[in-house]
Amino acid sequence: MTASPDVPTATLHLEVRHGGYQDSVRLMQVGQAIGGVPGVSHALVAMATVLNLELAAQMGFRPPTDVTANDLLVAIASNDEESLRQALARLELELAPPAAPAVGAAVTTVPPRTVGSAIRRTGATLAVVSTPGEHAFVEAMDAVQAGASVMVFSDNVPVWQEIRLKDTAAAQGVLVMGPDCGTAVLGGVGIGFANVVRPGPVGLVAASGTGAQQVMCLLDAAGVGISHCLGVGGRDLSTEIAGRSTLAALDALDADPATELIVLVSKPPAAEVADVVRAHAAELGTPVVVALLGSGQPDLTAAVTRVLGRIGRPVPGHWPAWLPAVPPATVPPAAGAALRGLFAGGTLADEAMLIASAALGPIRSNIPLRPEWALPRDADPLADGPLADGHWMVDFGADELTRGRPHPMIDNTLRLRRLAQEAADPAGGTVLLDVVLGHAADPDPAAVLAPAIAAAVAGGLAVVVSLTGTDNDPQDLNRQAGALRAAGAAVFRSNADAARHAVALVRAGASEGTR
Of the N and C termini of the chain, which has fewer Cβ atoms inside 10 Å? Predict the structure, then answer.
């Protein structure tokens, strides 16, 4: 191991574990755990892909060249030897294999070497692929050709590979969920970023991860359960992919006797693809509520209201909210009243931008609703300094911002840094952010967010939180909401309600500033 001149060599640790393949989602969680050890400044625990080797180099390491993407890379930078020792101990704990079988237990057969051979040996009907995006296609195609449906959690998969994969799946009579499918629920079993929802009659087809989570969690709050949630990947309703998996998933739920009503959820789709999907849905025997976000279209909370009406369930008078005991101070007249969004979920960001832009005008973003609303070319959400004048929202979970980094639903580091910068920016007035609970997400997001929110509020910033989760999620929704509220944030279970509240605060600040 060799360090760069500006990093003390004694605090650095680099190792490669040859053939030590691990699931990428698990490695994101391991990296977060190591990074949380006191005294650790940087931690990278990832497969030794070209990208991750580059990230290690940026941390001050000179990684070896005799590695492959099947090798495990560990790079840790700490303040001293003791913190490094603790980090390495935590690493071994996190990577420890399951307990060995008891003495006398039956000896298992040699593990299969490929996804396809595992499927053929076991008769499995579903495979989950969460390798780095450049390697996902081979594994997913192996599963499909072996006759199994596949959930491709991996992002950064080329469009041509997605098309070929989904066309092959159609010929095989199986379903491809993804790429970039973060959420699914199959027969009550959550996969990926999944909330704990009750079983019930509503099935979802979702070209959206956090959008599906929002709908399922609001239904759960209203006492309505889920039969299945079939994620199809965020690009499925694009012009290129043309709804290949969406149409197949609609047919699958239509044939499922446990599904009495289908909800189709998507971030803003291509108009011509939306027309095809709507026409297909209208021909099914199972009724479909279409919730395709877009200008002039109902938000996801309104879609849930329609679902409740269709199945004869009462609609809550209002969705749960936790408002701070002391309302945020009015924005000083000398300051601006800009709205800034720091999102982990792309669909929740889309929904918030649709609501906010209708009231406030253009919202700049890295996932803009219109091309002309894109952030300036030199704006880097990962760097220090202002991003843009006026209102803007950033999806920190976008593919280009998660290359080699944990997803912000797992690690809030990037959002915390940006929140601190916005608190110091006199042009800002209100920050809107989402917190998504459930399996695979940060086990206690309020623990790191609440102190940062309290500091921002103390500095005069108004903070609004969209909290997506259920009462049975492992993070304890009410405890999370209480901690965020105590920090001074206004907390809403409805993302649409959170966006409207943020808009109202901005408008109030703008009015005060013109007096």
Answer: C
The answer to whether the 114-179 and 321-513 domains have the same CATH topology is yes
Fold of 321-513: Rossmann fold (3.40.50)
What are the tens digits of pLDDT across the range 204-243?
999 999 999 999 999 999 999 999 999 999 999 999 999 9
Identity of the residue numbered 468:
T
Residue 439 to residues 183, 277, 319, Cα–Cα distance (Å): 10, 31, 23
Kindly report the CATH class assigned to 9-95.
alpha beta
> Which among 291, 166, 148, 160 is positioned nearest to 219, based on CA atoms?
291
Residue 328 has pLDDT above 60, yes or no: no
The pLDDT confidence band at residue 409, using thresholds 50, 70 and 90, is very high
Q: Under CATH, which number does the domain 198-229+239-316 receive?
A: 3.40.50.261
pLDDT tens figures, 88-115: 888 888 888 766 555 555 555 677 888 8
- Helices and strands in the chain: count of H runs, count of E runs: 15, 19
Q: Among candidates 463, 461, 453, which has minimal Cα distance to 432? A: 463
Q: Going by DSSP bridges, is the β-strand pair 226-231/199-207 parallel, antiparallel, or unpaired?
A: parallel
Lowest mean pLDDT among 261-265, 281-285, 395-399: 395-399
Class of domain 114-179: alpha beta
Show me where the domains of the chain are located.
9-95, 114-179, 198-229+239-316, 321-513
Q: What is the C-alpha to C-alpha distance for residues 11 and 39, in angstroms, rounded to an integer? A: 10
What is the rounded CA–CA span in Å between residue 120 and residue 311?
40
Share of the chain above pLDDT 70, in %: 90
Neighbours of 12 (CB within 10 A): 20
pLDDT tens digits for 136-153? Answer: 999 999 999 999 999 999
Contact yes or no for 298/266 (Cβ under 8 A): no
Rounded Cα distance between 303 and 50, Å, is 43
* Tokens standing for residue 363: 């919202």
CB contact burial 133-146 (16+ within 10 A = b; e otherwise): bbbbbebbbbbbbb
Q: Is the pLDDT confidence value at 499 over 70?
A: yes
How far apart are the C-alpha atoms of 405 and 131, rounded to whole Å? 14
Predicted confidence (pLDDT) per residue in 358-374, tens digit:
999 999 999 999 999 99
Inter-residue contact 179 to 162 (CB < 8 Å): yes
DSSP state of 181: -
Point out which residues pair with 16 in neighbouring strands. 73
